[in-house]
Amino acid sequence: MASGDDQYHPKDALKEAATASMITGSAGAFISAVQNTLTKRNHGPWGVFTRTGSTIVVFTIMGGAYEFTKNAAANLREKDDSLNPALGGLFAGAVMGLKRGTTPSVLGFGALTAVVMGTYHYTGAALTGYKKDKEIDEFERKQFLRKNRRVPIEQTVAELGEGRGIYPPGYDERRKERIKENYGIDVPAKSTHS
């Protein structure tokens, strides 16, 4: 075991599984209610439980299986990495495949969910992208990147040229000379850019 902040702290797998089961069971009840309202034949309000109730059961077991397996694997391995969500996804996907009742669907859904959950955790567990260091303030990081990527005006002028919003020191004099040379017109000495 590592020392300091890298030390693993055990998780209560049963409590987390119960919480996840309640959350996903509620989502399953909502989806079951939607399925019940979309059927052609009216099954009444109890159709949520009798006709499409298996959706509630599958969602409840999936959430509990995922969270319990993820936390139990983390406790057994004493590591909190992306293998734990992959193992949880394997069991949750297998539960989803059990509804179909074939071995290929159990294995296929399990493997698919394991890959998706493991990859999601490995890439930072956020849809906004991977955050490398959670201790660094995001505003400060962006300010550093802006300062770090600034290019001197001389290099910008050398690459892009003058004009079009790029006005280095002495631009007005050089512009005045070019206009005089090309068109024979004297431009007033008033500075238009600073």
Task: Describe the overall structure.
This protein has 194 residues and is mostly helical. Helices cover 63% and strands 0% of the residues. It contains eight helices and no strands. Helix 1 packs antiparallel against helix 3, helix 3 packs antiparallel against helix 4 (83-98) and helix 4 (83-98) runs antiparallel to helix 5 (103-122). The longest helix is centred in the first third of the chain and has 25 residues, at 13-37. The mean pLDDT is 83.
Gross geometry: elongated
Q: Tell me, rounded to a whole number, the average pLDDT.
A: 83
Helix content: 55-70%
Q: CA-to-CA gap between the ends?
A: 62 Å
Q: How many E strands?
A: 0
Keywords: Membrane, Mitochondrion, Mitochondrion inner membrane, Transmembrane, Transmembrane helix, Ubiquinone
GO biological process, one term: mitochondrial electron transport, NADH to ubiquinone
Protein name: NADH-ubiquinone oxidoreductase 21.3 kDa subunit
Membrane topology: Multi-pass membrane protein
What's the short story on this structure?
This protein is mostly helical and about 190 residues long. It contains 8 helices and no strands. It has helices at about 15-35, 45-50, 55-75, 85-100, 105-120, 140-150, 155-160, 170-185.
Q: Any descriptors?
A:
single chain, 194 residues, mainly alpha, 63% helix, mitochondrion inner membrane, transmembrane, transmembrane helix, NADH-ubiquinone oxidoreductase 21.3 kDa subunit, mitochondrion
